[in-house]
Design a protein that fits this description.
heterotrimer; A alpha+beta (81); B alpha+beta (176); C alpha+beta (749); B: 176 residues; alpha+beta; Ubiquitin-like (UB roll); DNA polymerase, domain 1; five-stranded mixed beta sheet; 5 strands; C: 749 residues; Aldehyde Oxidoreductase, domain 4; 3 domains; seven-stranded mixed beta sheet; 28% helix; globular
Chain lengths: 81, 176, 749
């Protein structure tokens, strides 16, 4: 079981929930299960999100394995100059 | 509007072109003569990317009309190297990594050449003020000033060599 | 195939050296071709007509007289572009920003365009286009735009169930700030303003577009991301991605401003309508008015600390002006604001606010400099209040490995502490100061990104190597990539030729943003080279008639392993390449990767200034940048990034700002009135490169391009304060603002 923390601006898609318990072994599985539970997250994911697993931020790679008990954050996708 | 016929010299080559009365020398160089080394960064004489020389005088070619080049000697970045021998400024700009994107580089080289032609031993401050009409947004000017300093040293060496050669020639003539 | 991207701490032979760049000769001889430097047979000149109003309804556009002008080959308005209403809102916004539909949203918003046989005719045609505007109330100030009675910029945007200019609210942080402030001995609360700045690249936006009635097209363009431009243009105009070939020209500076399309879809549409190539080049005035500068901001900061220097709580409210279209800019300000520090209780709330100004886009570490100005100024105030040295105060509170970042994740090995220690030890900190002179320092953070990357490496029969990358070279990265390929293959740097491919010649590469060029293309180059080495080992094994397991690659040669093969002399890359036609054909390496794990980057800057109390003019006397690069592949260009970022920050701190009139029009759209630093304004900029390896890159590379613009605003503010005793809370700290502050202090206000 993982505890996924959501950054502020994504919480309006999860009825205000700031952290969600979910079972997932990869980022792909995590995002799929999050959308199953909170369908409104889909449009936010389409707009772009980043997932941080134990401090590493992943923007595109959905195949990243998530170790048991990892610290996971869902963030809006960020861009640079 | 009927075009104007202009005869001029560009980088030592006799060049003729037809241009509109309101056409800038920069547009003529770039669009009619295919010399795109001079760049348009602003079109208002603020950035120096279009720097060229007219009869040895440094100008922004975006502020000069093509027609004004009649009978003049125009010098552009394309004429800075002597065949396959680069000017010391060109060598030192590469050596000192004095360019990042390189869009301002032709203007800087033409302006720095005008400085060194006038003063081959400039102080840092003289270099910075001589190049204050050329904008660079990448480098913070640090490596540019260093490159110009190094090139000035090369130019002075070159001058000393030429002077020595001239002296020897003169002495040889005297002996004869 | 997935590769292990972990840092391996290998010893380098050529990485870290400073050879001349491959594009150097072209760039010092005027031969390099930038966006405006190519020509096509039969090419037309494009020009764009722009709104002179900050906000207006477009009732009617009459293009009939322009169309009849001799030499005009195409005139377009939004009616000639696809109607993306009710589709993807992001695409709708991009296209509407390129060409207004029923409303002009800012001074400079495109409303029509022409293509004609020459510049003169195109200009004349623009004058013949008649537009019936109904002027609407406008707002250009971020705080005023948040007021309840403000004119609404985008009616579809709602906040609290009402139409609003607040496009997004973002919140980050952890702990309990209220409880934290209760524990503090000293609390400082202060508000700051920063004005809008432009990237100021010297090369205006320029492109040459050519589209035929068969739906095939080509675009030559100055861009940071030609693959992204291709995808965006194709989807906006209903073209097939594969049929639009985009070539990135040499790019004359971008700094984030060339990450988005501004007029390229218009050039393509003009070309399609005229069925001729169209060259479209912005004037400098257009660049200021109609490309994407960075935000102006209004920020409140509150920090509380104990007398021993421990920060107990920190909070920030950030209001970022996004221009006429929503962006992530306030959010990025909130995420970066406290990233340098290890605070128990921390909170940032950001508002992205719409105004009648051009659509904001990224500018080097977007949004971080403004937040850092507010935070780092307040940190200095607090240090002074509790009587602690500002460097020591920061060291005490600096984030380190294991710190939970204010934006969420936990840090791995990071460089903020080491940069501060390096600042403390730097001789600059001990240099004597004179009258009206002051020293300031400040810290900065940027995330850095990776992204989709694809690289090819082809070995010629003579043993020279073509390295083909898809990230645009914005500041010398072809030299760095060549160094990496030389390192891996074990051959001299001079035998590598690195090219940036067009979109038809290589797989997709994300835009060169987020300091990702050397990080991600470097990674793909390493793996492409290793791929080629695997192939060369196979070829050597074939020639030697031994098993490939018995072949290893070392110093540019295949070596046969073991006593059984000790009579076999090493086979060089050159020999293997020469034999390739008979050992299986061409030898190539290839890699595609989603480069994640770009290491976060920190910098600390020191600056000395002298303020003239008579005029308020500030001269920067000395400047030192200390930054963690992870690994400097080509140190010249790492230093160049540090120096260039610092110079941009200095310009912003002291001079650069968009000035809007009451009429909502931009008053200083030229390099004369929007003054960027010139050569005589700046000192030499000293650099200290720290190398704290990024654990997620084989060479330890972090991005280096952006962070150096983050600290200067605050470093200069702190220096000015130490020089003349006035604390500026408004950037730029131009002479009139400093003079006013000095006068107010003298008057005891």
């Amino acid at each position: 079981m993982l505890e996924v923390s959501l950054s502020g601006s994504l919480r309006d898609a999860t009825d205000g929930a700031a952290s969600i318990e979910i079972e997932a072994r990869t980022i792909r599985e995590l995002l799929r299960k999050l959308v199953e539970r909170y369908p409104r997250l889909q449009s936010r994911i389409d707009e772009g999100v980043a997932v941080s697993v134990n401090g590493e931020i992943y923007r595109d790679n959905r195949d990243v394995p998530i170790p048991e008990g990892a610290e996971v954050f869902l963030l809006p996708r960020i861009q640079g100059g | 509007m009927p075009g104007l016929h202009v005869s001029t010299t560009v980088n030592g080559d006799v060049t003729e072109f037809v241009c509109q009365p309101d056409e800038t020398l920069l547009d003529v160089l770039r669009n009619r003569l295919g010399l795109t080394g001079a760049k348009e960064g602003c079109g208002t004489g603020d950035c120096g990317a279009c720097s060229v020389t007219i009869d040895g005088q440094l100008v922004c070619s975006c502020l000069v009309l093509g027609a004004e080049a009649e009978g003049c000697k125009v010098g552009t970045i394309e004429g800075l190297a002597d065949g396959d021998t680069l000017h010391p400024l060109q060598e030192q700009f590469i050596e000192h990594a004095a360019l990042q994107c390189g869009i301002c580089t032709p203007g800087f080289l033409v302006a720095a050449k005008a400085l060194l032609d006038d003063n081959s031993n400039p102080s840092d401050e003289e270099i910075r003020f001589a190049l204050a009409g050329n904008l660079c947004r990448c480098t913070g000017y640090d490596k540019i000033v260093r490159a110009v300093n190094a090139a000035a040293k090369d130019v002075r060496k070159q001058q000393a060599r030429l002077q020595k050669q001239a002296r020897l020639k003169k002495a040889a003539k005297k002996r004869r | 195939m997935a590769h292990d991207t972990s840092f391996t701490n290998q010893e380098f032979k050529v990485v870290g050296s400073r050879p001349p760049r491959p594009d150097g000769l072209d760039k010092v001889t005027g031969r390099a071709l930038f966006g405006a430097d190519t020509f096509a047979p039969g090419q037309l000149v494009g020009r764009i007509l722009r709104s002179p109003h900050a906000h207006a309804k477009i009732r009617k556009i009459d293009t009939s007289r322009a169309e009849k002008l001799k030499g005009v080959k195409a005139v377009i308005t939004s009616r000639d572009l696809p109607d993306l209403t009710n589709g993807n809102r992001g695409n709708f916004d991009i296209l509407e920003n390129c060409m207004a539909r029923d409303r002009a949203l800012y001074d400079g918003h495109a409303v029509a365009a022409v293509a004609a046989i020459d510049e003169q005719t195109a200009r004349k045609a623009l004058k013949l286009i008649k537009i019936d505007y109904k002027i609407l109330p406008h707002v250009t100030d971020v705080d005023k735009a948040m007021a309840a009675d403000a004119p609404i910029v985008q009616p579809h945007i709602r906040h609290d169930d009402k139409p609003s200019n607040i496009a997004n609210v973002s919140e980050f942080g952890h702990g309990d700030v209220d409880a934290g402030f209760d524990q503090a001995d000293v609390v400082i609360e202060k508000s700051y303003l920063t004005e809008q700045a432009h990237q100021g690249y010297i090369e205006p936006h320029a492109c040459l577009a050519s589209v035929g009635p068969d739906g095939q097209g080509e675009l030559w363009v100055t861009t940071q991301g030609h693959f992204t431009f291709r995808n965006v243009c194709a989807s906006l105009l209903g073209m097939d991605i594969a049929k639009l070939k985009v070539t990135s020209s040499e790019i004359g500076g971008g700094f984030g401003g060339k990450t988005h399309v501004w007029m390229e879809p218009v050039a393509l549409a003009l070309s399609r309508k005229a069925n001729r190539p169209v060259k479209l080049v912005m004037t400098r005035d257009e660049v200021f008015k109609a490309s994407g500068p960075t935000c102006s901001t209004s920020i409140d900061v509150k920090i509380g600390a104990k007398k021993d220097g421990t920060v107990t709580a920190a909070s920030a409210t950030l209001r970022y002006q996004d221009g006429a279209y929503p962006g992530p800019w306030g959010m990025l300000g909130a995420m970066t604001s406290w990233a340098c520090y290890d605070f128990e209780n921390v909170k940032s709330v950001a508002y992205d606010v719409l105004v009648n100004r051009p659509k904001v886009t990224a500018y080097r570490a977007p949004s971080a400099p403004m937040a850092a100005f507010a935070v780092e100024s307040t940190m200095d105030l607090l240090a002074k209040e509790i009587g602690m040295d500002p460097v020591e105060f920061r060291i005490k509170n600096a984030a380190k490995e294991g710190t939970r970042a204010s934006y969420g994740p936990t840090y791995g090995p990071i460089g903020i502490g080491p940069t501060l220690e390096a600042v403390k030890k730097h001789p600059h900190m001990k240099a004597k100061l004179g009258k009206n002179q002051g020293r300031g320092m400040a810290c900065g953070f940027w995330f850095n990104f990776g992204g989709q990357t694809c690289t090819d490496l082809n070995i010629g029969v003579d043993g020279t190597v073509n390295l083909t990358i898809g990230t645009v070279d914005v500041g010398g990265s072809r030299a760095s990539m060549s160094l990496i390929a030389a390192e891996e293959l074990g051959i001299p740097y001079e035998r590598i030729k690195c090219n940036v491919a067009d979109t038809a010649s290589l797989g997709h590469n994300d835009t060169t943003v987020g300091s990702r060029g050397t990080f991600s293309s470097g990674m793909a180059t390493i793996f492409a080279a290793r791929d080629a080495i695997d192939e060369m080992k196979e070829r050597a094994a074939k020639a030697w008639e031994i098993e490939v397991e018995d072949v290893e690659w070392r110093d540019g040669c295949a070596h046969a392993k073991g006593v059984a093969h000790s009579n076999l002399a090493p086979m060089s890359l050159k020999e293997i390449a020469a034999a390739s036609p008979t050992t299986g054909g061409p030898i190539a390496g290839h890699n595609e990767v989603v480069a994640d794990g770009a290491g976060v980057s920190f910098a600390s800057h020191i600056c000395d200034v002298e303020v003239d109390p008579e005029t308020g003019f500030t001269k920067v006397l000395r400047y030192t940048v200390v930054q963690d690069a992870g690994k400097a592949i080509h140190p010249d260009y790492v230093e160049g990034q540090f120096q260039g970022g610092a110079a941009q920050g200095i310009g912003w701190a002291l001079n650069e700002e968009y000035v809007y009139g009451e009429d909502g029009r931009l008053q200083n759209a030229s390099f004369l009135d929007y003054r960027i630093p010139v050569c005589s304004d700046l000192p030499y900029i000293d650099t200290v490169i720290l190398e704290i390896p990024n654990p997620n890159h084989p060479y330890g590379i972090r991005g280096v391009g952006e962070t150096s613009i983050v600290p200067p605003l605050a470093a200069i503010g702190n220096a000015v304060s130490n020089a003349v005793g006035v604390r500026l809370n408004h950037v730029p700290m131009s002479p009139p603002r400093i003079l006013k502050a000095i006068k107010e202090k003298q008057a005891g206000l």
